[in-house]
Input
Amino acid sequence: PWLMGQEWKHVLRPIVKYRYWVRRGKGRPFGVIDGKVENNFLPMLDLAEARNGDDLEGQSILRLGLENDFFTKGKRIRKFAALDFYQDLHFKRNFAGKREKMLSDFYILSELNPRRWLNLRLYSRLNWEHFSLNETNAEVNFLSGDLWELGFRAKFLRHRATQFGIHFSFHFDAISQLDLLAQIDGRRGKFLAMEVGYRTRLGSVWDVEIFCKIKNRSSREGRFCPGFLINLARW
Output
C-alpha cells in the first residue's frame, strides 16, 4: 500500500571485478587486507569467506554480480529496496596450504526502506553443493532525518547466533559525525569490542576519520587500538 499512487523505477547494474593477491615471500608479514571494516557485509573481494589472512598464500579471483536498485518518487526520489547477487570464481587460491574450490559461496545482499525512518538489511551466504545457508547477517536501522541513526545487528553461522552489535551515529552538521559501534559474543554473551570514531571533511574532498577501538582482554591484538584515516580524493 505504501507504493500505491507513486512512480517507481528499477536500475540494473552488472558487476565484474578482478583481484590478484601476490603470494608472500618467506618471512614477509601481510599488510592489512580488510582495512577498517564496520561489519561483515562483503567487506572486500572474496573476504566474506576468508576472515583470517594469516596463512593466505595467493589469490586470482573474478567476481560476477548483479545489483538491483528500486527507487520511488513521491515528494522526492528515494531508494526503497535493493537486491544484489554475487559469485566469485577462484582461478588461483590457497588457504592454509590447501587448494580451494573454484566456485565460492553464493552471496545475496538485500535492503528494504519501507519508511524514511526505517532501514532493513540482510546478507546471506549460501553453499552451492548442499544449497544450505552458511551465514546470515541481519540489520535493523532507525533514522531520524539527518540527525542520528541507531542500528541493531545479528550474525548467524549455520543457524547459530554468533555475534550481536549496536551501532549509533550522530551528525553534528553536513560534514561531521560521531560513530559508536559495540559488538557482543552471541554464544557466551561477553563483550567483544567497542569502537568510537569521529568523521569530518576538510575542504571539498578530503575525508578524515579519527577512531579508537577497545577490545576485550582475550584478543590477541592490543586492548586499545587508536587510528587515523584520511581519503585525499573520492569519486
In short: Residues 31-39 have pLDDT under 50 and may be disordered. The CA atoms of residues 154 and 164 lie 5 Å apart. The longest strand covers residues 77-95. The two ends are 37 Å apart (CA to CA).
